[in-house]
Amino acid sequence: MNWYKPIMATAASRLSELTRATSARQVRLACGVILFAYVVSHFLNHALGNISVDAMEAGVYYHTAFWQFLPVTIVFYGAALTHLGLGLYALYQRRQFRWKAIEPLQLVLGLSIPALVMAHVIGVRLGLTLYGHEKLYPQELYLFFVAAPGRLWTMTILLLIAWVHGCIGIYFWLRMRPFFPRAAPYLLAAAVLIPTLALLGIYQGGRSVALESDDGEWRTHNLTRQQVGTVAEGATLERIAGGLTIGYVGLLGLVLLARGVRALRERRAGMIALSYGNGKTVRVPKGLSVLEASLRHNVPHASVCGGRARCSTCRIRIIGDHGALPEPSQREAFVLARVGTNDPSIRLACQLRPMGDLSFFQLFMPQMLSANAAASTPARIGQERYLVSLFVDMRGSTQLAEKRLPFDTVFIVNRFLGAVSQAVIENGGQPNQFVGDGMLALFGLAADPQTACRQALKAAAGIAAHVDELNELLSHDLRQPIRFGIGIHGGEVIIGDIGYRDHIVFTALGDAVNVAARLQDMTKALTCEAVVSDEVRSTAGLAGDALPQQEVAIRGRDEPMVVRVVVNTRELSALVDRSERVAA
User: Fold this and answer.
1) What region does 7 belong to: left with phi over 0, alpha with psi -120 to 50, or beta?
2) Are strands 271-275 and 358-362 parallel, antiparallel or unpaired?
3) Whole-number pLDDT of residue 459
4) What is the structure's pLDDT at 207?
5) CATH number of the structural domain spanning residue 465
6) Long-range contact list for 334-342, CB < 8 A, 24+ apart?
7) 532 in any annotated domain
8) Core vs surface per residue 207-220: b (16+ CB within 10 A) or e
9) 257: how many CB neighbours lie within 10 A of its CB?
């Protein structure tokens, strides 16, 4: 009878988590994506003018059929009003504008769009609703190119502003996604080509209409009262558009006035001292976030997402009593929980607005440098990715060192690590960490999970081949050939720059890396060259019976893990090639 209760409880839990994960910025982003989809559709329709005005009219039929479908219309206008309201709220809320120039530029462009688009929307949409006007491309192009050419420049500016504003928003949305570096050239090409073709289409269509408008028959068919309305109706629509524009400008003025009143009240409420734990102290009005205070006083503070609570790089640890601080918002609590932090002394600087003196230190210092990076390269911090980790270790290095001079031992170990690194690089991986006579290699930094798994398996075969060559080369000096053990596992990890000052390295952290190291250790007990997790085997597309299966206990895990034992890693390359042929 109560079978539905667990389902309802699960649904309620997921809804609660979704609510915590959603911020006003994310709602604004979702609404912006809907509006940008409309802009793209409109621009593509304009581009049909490069063919003919008839093509534009045929395209606008499908454009309006979709966007004027009642459910879509409700979503569209709801998104437009919500986006506008949240844009005004963002103007009021932001206390500091010393972000990168592109961010205030996006805000200014977005707030200017309603004032520029008002006359067009009222003339077309409200004209249809009030008077039944059926203005399409011939009528609009006639207005811009013949009746009122000055409006063409206003419309051109509007199109460019709307496009640039939308592209900046898409950039901020996608820039931290793993696929963005690969997609960026194509997105840039689209960002340039679409508005260029749209403006050329308007020009070509307008020129065609301007030539045809000299024909009295064309005017009779395209400039009727039903299509363009009367002079009185046009004047009424212009008054409405002017009134709404003035009202919108007044609304902007009220927001700016509210900002001024808030700033005055904050100053009257008193100043507080923020101490950075390194001797730096600044005094700011109550109500500023810690990140805004840092920007106001030019104190470097890490913030990859620009203060949007979409990352945790601005985290600070409170020194002393933190009981009097405001409670974390739902969004801040979600981000802190997402990174596994339940320490109440750790907060997001972009969200914490202290009302009293505060001492803290930053957990991530900005502009840290990798050991091998140029001095101007900022740190890579906190990106979650699916990677395949390959651990390889040289066997018998201790006995090797006992019977040789230290420099001879180092020479052989370096030759071994060189052979391993060459095999990793040849198969699309990246040598990452060298620990003694062992190495961690990462696959998937620029590839999808399936490709990364296949690359790792082929790299294991390549390691065997290169070590065989090394053994042959050093056969006169080695009593026993060099042996090795490999562990391979894939999963979600955190990648970024780790270390201190001049000792910064780019690496991966997470359970998947630790498991790969444990699997490498197991090659000794299982007397094999490699142990591969079943996760990597299945993701790579290898057949279930391709490699012997075994369950093993992993230190730190409660459940046993299914792995594949590889006695001879040289066979892996052929197995991967076979799976690729089957998939093809």
Assistant:
1) alpha
2) parallel
3) 94
4) 93
5) 3.30.70.1230
6) 334/17, 334/20, 334/21, 335/309, 335/310, 335/311, 336/312, 338/312, 339/312, 339/382, 341/312, 341/315
7) yes
8) ebbeebbeeeeeee
9) 10
Is the same domain home to 391 and 344?
Answer: no
Tokens coding 221: 């068919």
- Same domain membership, residue 289 and residue 223: no
- Between 404 and 244, where is the model more confident? 244
Higher-scoring residue by pLDDT: 154, 367: 154
**Which token pair is 534?**
């079943």
CA dist 194 → 10, 54, 172, 174, 434 (Å):
44, 20, 20, 19, 48
Q: How many structural domains compose the chain?
A: 3
Domain residue limits at 321 = 271-362
Which residue, of 362, 394, 415, is where some domain finishes? 362
Cα separations in angstroms, 49 against 135, 140, 201: 16, 13, 4
pLDDT at position 369:
34
Name the pTM for this structure. Answer: 0.57
295 and 255 inside one domain: no
Is 504 a domain residue? yes
Output the CA–CA distances (angstroms, integers) from residue 534 to 490, 491, 561, 562, 564, in the order listed: 10, 12, 8, 6, 6
Residue with tokens 């203060």: 307
Whether residue 473 is found in the same domain as residue 535: yes
Residue 246: φ, ψ to 5°: -60, -40
What SS3 class is residue 287? Answer: coil
